[in-house]
Amino acid sequence: MLVIVLLLSYLIGSIPTSIITAKVLKGIDIRDYGSGNAGGTNTFRVLGWRAGLFVSAVDVFKGFAAAFWIARPAYGAFGLEPEALQLMAGCAAVTGHVWTVFARFRGGKGVAAAAGLLLALNWQALLICAAIFAALLFAFRIVSLASISAALSLPLVLSLYRYLLNRPVADSLFYFSFAAAAFIAFTHRSNIKRLLSGGENTFKKKK
């Protein structure tokens, strides 16, 4: 059952939302335009805010669905706590989103699917990270900077919850937050290089 749950979560995460949307609306492969990434941000840039919002919402839902619903049949497997199994299913969905089997393993960068996973496990932490994302996006208009900063803030937020506010945070989620921050930084490594060189794209409408 655990193998089935992980495989199904991966396949759900692999649904290439932006690629399908671009094909339906414009008959193009979105990876040939803009930043070349098959994610929500590039959809905003290439197809406009309506398509971008739709793609982002679906990608968030993929991570949420895997962690909240698809993981449930595997509860109790190997004596693992439900939160650990939710994380495993959600991570499988994020993996599918980044390396989709339906599009030659070229997908998005995992931020939206990871947000859906966090929504299923700790929506309060997600709200704080989302606020950090929104504040930095408004201030600098650089999506990659906002995304990386929000991901890096997650372990700090959970540490604050756990050690200063004495709020319950599952061990699996706490340690996962550090791995998730590192993973998002890894998928944004090309963006980090451009940020350091001052050549990263800003989020504004191009002529």
How far the N terminus sits from the C terminus, by CA atoms, comes to 51 Å
- Mean pLDDT comes to 94
In total, the number of domains comes to 1
Radius of gyration: 17 Å
Order of helices and strands: HHHHHHHHHH
Q: Ranges with pLDDT <50 over ≥5 residues?
A: none
For the secondary structure, the number of strands is: 0
Give your account of this protein's structure.
The protein is mainly alpha-helical. It has one domain. It has ten helices and no strands. α1 runs antiparallel to α4 and α6 runs antiparallel to α7. The longest helix is centred in the first third of the chain and has 22 residues. It starts with a helix and ends in a 10-residue tail after the last helix.
Attribute tags:
single chain; 207 residues; mainly alpha
In short:
By secondary structure, the chain is mainly α. It has 10 helices and no strands. The protein has one domain (2-197).
Blueprint of the fold:
Blueprint: H1 2-14, H2 17-26, H3 40-47, H4 49-70, H5 82-98, H6 111-121, H7 123-140, H8 143-164, H9 171-187, H10 189-197
Helix pairs in contact: 1-4, 1-5, 2-4, 3-4, 4-5, 4-6, 5-6, 5-9, 6-7, 7-8, 8-9
